[in-house]
Design a protein that fits this description.
Number of helices: 2
Helix content: 25-40%
Shape: elongated
Distance between the termini: 29 Å
CATH topology: Double Stranded RNA Binding Domain
Structural class: alpha/beta
Strand content: 35-45%
CATH class: Alpha Beta
Order of helices and strands: EEEHEEEEH
C-alpha cells in the first residue's frame, strides 16, 4: 500500500511564534464539506500533536488564550485511482483547508494558508461491505499526517 501526504507550504506564510505566547486556542474547525465529523478528526489530531510536541497550553476557548488557531475544511474528495476488474481498489482522499494562527493581543497573523492541501491513499478489499471500515482508518492516518505537517510548518516557520 502506498501512502502519500502532502501539505503544500509554498502558499503559506509563517513567522516565529512570539515568546509571549503561552496558550493556543484550537476550536473545532468549520466543516464546509459533506463529510461527517471530518472537522472533528482533523482538529483532534492537531490538538494531540500540539500537546505532544510543544509546551503550550492548548484549549478550545479563545477568551483564555494568547493565540487562536482556526481552520475551515473547504473540500473533501475520495476518488478511485486504481481499478481491479472494473471496481475501485485504491482511493485517494484529498482535503483542502483554510488555516490561520493569530496572536490575540496584537491581532497579528503568525501563520496563514488559505489553500492547505493534503492527501492520503487507501486500499479497499473487493468486498463492498468492507469499504467503510477501511475509510475510517485512512481518515485517521490522513488526520495524523496532516497534523504533523501543520504543526511542523508552524513551529519551524517554514
Amino acid at each position: 500500500m502506498f501512502s502519500f501526504s502532502c501539505g503544500y507550504r509554498i502558499a503559506g506564510k509563517a513567522s516565529a511564534i512570539p515568546s509571549s505566547i503561552n496558550s493556543i486556542a484550537v476550536p473545532i474547525f468549520v466543516n464546509q464539506t459533506t463529510k461527517y465529523r471530518l472537522e472533528q478528526r482533523l482538529t483532534g489530531a492537531v490538538v494531540e500533536e500540539l500537546i505532544s510536541r510543544t509546551n503550550y497550553q492548548i484549549t478550545s476557548d479563545a477568551r483564555s488564550s494568547d493565540a487562536l488557531l482556526s481552520g475551515i475544511v473547504t473540500e473533501f474528495n475520495a476518488t478511485p485511482v486504481i481499478f481491479i476488474n472494473g471496481v475501485g481498489s485504491t482511493f485517494l482522499i484529498t482535503v483542502r483547508l483554510k488555516l490561520e494562527l493569530k496572536e490575540l493581543r496584537t491581532n497579528k497573523v503568525l501563520f496563514q494558508n488559505s489553500n492547505y492541501f493534503f492527501r492520503e491513499e487507501f486500499q479497499i478489499s473487493q468486498e463492498s461491505e468492507d469499504f467503510f471500515p477501511e475509510e475510517g482508518p485512512a481518515l485517521e492516518r490522513l488526520s495524523r499526517s496532516f497534523s504533523r505537517d501543520l504543526v511542523s510548518t508552524i513551529l519551524e516557520s517554514f
